[in-house]
Q: What sequence folds into this?
């Protein structure tokens, strides 16, 4: 087993840090901290408590007698002294993005959920109970998705951001009903009320309502103004009068405004602009932004700090800001012009701050990642093993704050990120596969980037003795995936590679954006606005997509299936499609294409179908190879090509769909044909093929739930090698950027180590030979009437899992599909 402890003394200089960290795996501990799949170190300051789930909000009563925490599926109460959990209660309907307010005595908590309810929980005699739920569907009857809320001064009313309604709802708590809605901008998130008790400021993450002159895209049922890239182009704060029910002003702030805090002594309201790395200060007298503060640890950093939670000290001299992207809380002095005094380190993705007299309490949405022990250790880890944390941190002295700030910079790899933007004169540099410095030439002119679906390392390569695998967790061995195994054997086997994300919504964002915003990271309690697959413009990071950088630099790009929902022609069944892939009939099939991002649509192959579990990957590959022949004839090929090959997702044991073995063999054969075709062409000498997963959610791994596969095929890839350096999805995008001489897309991408150690400087032009499938590609799950016992049970369960979209909607769906796949491959007695 290759796992070692690394002393912090080795992490001093930038170069030493890079070399040391590459030897780490996600599970490794580093003196009070551990390494994340994002290649950041976490060493939270103070006391921490871990929990199963993702905490999105936190609240503490005035007397600090309790700590209330809103998780993705429940509410929990903690002892403020020990951080021991005192009681928990489930939230029917899950949890929304934010929204947790306490009664004046701190014994009741009001909690917005993803099922259109306002819950009231009560703590008494060591128990939390759900006292009542108030349904909030909006007056038009549609799902409202309630988020941030504020109680009136007398406790009679709750003012709630109704995200899908684009309104603020006023709930009469005595009557237990919604009594008024006030229009706001798009996707209201958080609300604060001025001391007058009448004027409220509401952050609207989708900005203003679209006009006829706006380019738009739908988000949660609302046409939202977007820029030419396709992301939401504005963020606003609506000023509403709670007494007369009107919106008096809209203030334009930074992108994706999140937390809102009134600062009466300054006659201002502070707003955290999550997608702009700023805090906007609005004058309540003029309703104009009078100051904008950049909250990055270093102003030279690119986008990626993502402030998303605020708290104000009682004396209003200090504003605290949770930077989700830096795993830190910023201390901001308000005694004069706002300025950052320093940072304290947190765990992964801080999403809320509650202030006590001597300490602050912080909820870390992702905590320490996917390490919660829900199964026996030998059963492995899954990316849904969420292990969030809460943290209790004392207010440090100025000297201690300076030390902690330096620690935040080290943990977040600030020096290495800045170094990644240093450009060298390339006039006399020899081309290499992955240049050491930005601006130096690469031997590669083309990158083919394959994005597959949902597998861990052990699922594929647990049976390969060369790497750090667990054969007991391998369910797709060499017999089923001969090409994956051959590529890992003949080229480099990467056994320390990680997906940054958890499931398809954040996985595809990591894969093509290299970042995930708080809007999406908070949504795991219920994806009520969207389960995004390129179809929610509020989701996207302001830094954009990898193709934006490629096209902006004058390179060419072609998309094959990514962010596309494909539909077969009417009358074609799953079996028809699977049996037509190698016949002339497949050329006649015209698939419907649905790509939410207009710019991506322009660069997409119309004939290559995207997501649909009824379309075999070998058919997709036939479509790609048809166009590849045209590239060969022309002697030109796009610089970057993205291929979505999703069939390793599978459909479990759902009747009428291919067996999991057939799905995997189909995906494997398509991968092999791709590498064989390219390696037998003139493009082989300057083309890199990268094959990885969008996420690892549908499997188990003995190292970590985020560990996954990455295959690198090229003439320069090391042959028959084992590469155990730490790499992740950020590394893939950083490497692509470095190859084309482009700066990293954002902080997260810049933090990922480039994959230079996977390559030789001298090419080996030996082509790859595809391995034929060893099992039947056209074997189908039998109908229910032919089954009995456990097979019948799991076929029925598998059929309930929605597979028409990339997202599995509930935790139960996810678990059901994983179990169905496990039993289908391992047997029903395992």
A:
């Amino acid at each position: 087993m290759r796992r070692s402890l690394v002393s912090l003394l080795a992490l001093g200089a930038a170069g030493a840090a890079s070399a040391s960290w590459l030897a780490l795996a996600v599970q490794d501990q580093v003196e009070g901290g551990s390494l994340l799949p994002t290649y950041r170190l976490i060493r939270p300051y103070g006391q921490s408590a871990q929990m199963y789930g993702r905490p999105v909000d936190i609240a503490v009563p005035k007397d600090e007698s309790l700590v209330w925490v809103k998780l993705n599926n429940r509410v929990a109460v903690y002892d403020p002294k020990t951080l021991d959990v005192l009681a928990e209660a489930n939230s029917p309907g899950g949890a929304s993005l934010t929204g947790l307010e306490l009664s004046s005595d701190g014994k009741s908590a009001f909690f917005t959920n993803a099922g259109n309810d306002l819950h009231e929980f009560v703590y008494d005699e060591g128990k939390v109970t759900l006292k009542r739920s108030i349904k909030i569907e909006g007056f038009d009857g549609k799902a409202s998705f309630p988020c941030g809320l504020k109680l009136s001064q007398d406790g009679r009313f709750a003012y709630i951001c109704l995200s899908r309604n684009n309104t603020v709802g006023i709930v009469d708590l005595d009557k237990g009903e919604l009594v008024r809605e006030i229009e706001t901008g798009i996707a209201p998130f958080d609300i604060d009320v001025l001391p007058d008790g009448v004027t409220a400021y509401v952050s609207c993450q989708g900005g203003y309502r679209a006009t006829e002159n706006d380019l738009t895209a739908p988000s949660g049922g609302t046409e939202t103004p977007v820029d030419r890239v396709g992301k939401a182009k504005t963020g606003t704060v609506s000023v509403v009068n709670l007494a007369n029910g009107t919106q008096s002003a809209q203030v334009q702030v930074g992108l994706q405004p999140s937390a809102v805090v009134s600062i009466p002594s300054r006659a201002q309201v502070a707003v955290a602009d999550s997608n702009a790395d700023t805090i906007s200060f609005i004058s309540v007298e003029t309703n104009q932004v009078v100051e904008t503060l950049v909250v990055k640890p270093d102003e030279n950093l690119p986008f990626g700090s993502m402030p998303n939670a605020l708290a104000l000290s009682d004396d209003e001299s200090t504003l605290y800001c949770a930077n989700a992207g830096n795993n830190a809380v910023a201390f901001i002095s308000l005694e004069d012009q706002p300025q950052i005094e320093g940072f304290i380190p947190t765990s992964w993705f801080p999403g809320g701050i509650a202030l006590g007299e001597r300490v602050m309490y912080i909820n870390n949405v992702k905590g320490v990642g996917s390490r919660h022990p829900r199964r026996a250790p030998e059963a492995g880890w899954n990316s849904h093993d969420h292990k969030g944390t809460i943290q209790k941190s004392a207010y440090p002295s100025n000297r201690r704050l300076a030390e902690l700030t330096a620690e935040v910079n080290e943990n977040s790899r600030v020096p290495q990120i800045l170094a990644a933007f240093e450009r060298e004169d390339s006039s006399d540099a020899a081309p290499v596969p992955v240049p050491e410095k930005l601006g130096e030439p690469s031997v590669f002119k083309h990158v083919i980037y394959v994005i597959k679906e949902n597998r861990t390392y052990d699922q594929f390569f647990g049976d390969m003795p060369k790497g750090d695998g667990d054969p007991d967790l391998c369910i797709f061995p060499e017999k089923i995936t001969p090409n994956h195994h051959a590529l890992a054997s003949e080229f480099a086997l990467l056994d320390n590679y990680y997906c940054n994300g958890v499931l398809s919504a954040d996985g595809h964002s990591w894969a093509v954006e290299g970042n995930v915003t708080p809007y999406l990271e908070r949504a795991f309690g219920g994806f009520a606005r969207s389960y995004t697959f390129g179809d929610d413009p509020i989701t996207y990071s302001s830094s954009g997509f990898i193709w934006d950088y490629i096209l902006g630099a004058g390179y060419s790009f072609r998309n094959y299936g990514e962010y596309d929902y494909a539909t077969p022609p009417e009358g074609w069944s799953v079996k028809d499609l699977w049996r037509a892939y190698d016949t002339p009939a497949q050329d006649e099939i015209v698939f419907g294409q649905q790509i939410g991002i207009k710019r991506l649509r322009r660069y997409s192959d119309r004939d290559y179908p995207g997501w649909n579990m009824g379309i075999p990957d070998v058919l997709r590959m036939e479509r790609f190879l048809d166009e590849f022949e045209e590239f060969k004839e022309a002697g030109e090929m796009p610089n970057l090509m993205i291929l979505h090959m999703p069939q390793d997702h599978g459909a479990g044991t759902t009747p009428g769909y291919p067996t999991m073995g057939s799905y995997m063999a189909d995906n494997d054969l398509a991968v092999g044909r791709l590498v064989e075709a390219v390696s037998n062409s003139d493009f082989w000498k300057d083309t890199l093929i990268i094959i990885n997963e969008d996420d690892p959610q549908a499997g188990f791994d003995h190292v970590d739930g985020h560990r996954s596969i990455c295959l690198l095929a090229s003439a320069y890839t090391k042959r028959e090698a084992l590469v155990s350096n730490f790499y992740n999805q950020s590394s893939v995008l950083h490497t692509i950027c470095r190859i084309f001489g482009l700066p990293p897309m954002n902080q997260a991408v810049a933090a990922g180590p480039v994959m230079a150690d996977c390559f030789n400087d001298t090419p080996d032009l030996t082509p790859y030979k595809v391995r034929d499938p060893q099992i039947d590609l056209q074997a189908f799950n039998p109908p229910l009437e032919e089954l009995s016992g456990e097979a019948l049970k799991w076929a029925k369960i598998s059929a309930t899992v929605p597979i028409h979209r990339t997202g599995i909607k509930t935790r139960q769906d996810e678990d059901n599909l994983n179990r169905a796949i496990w039993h289908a491959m391992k047997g029903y007695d395992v």
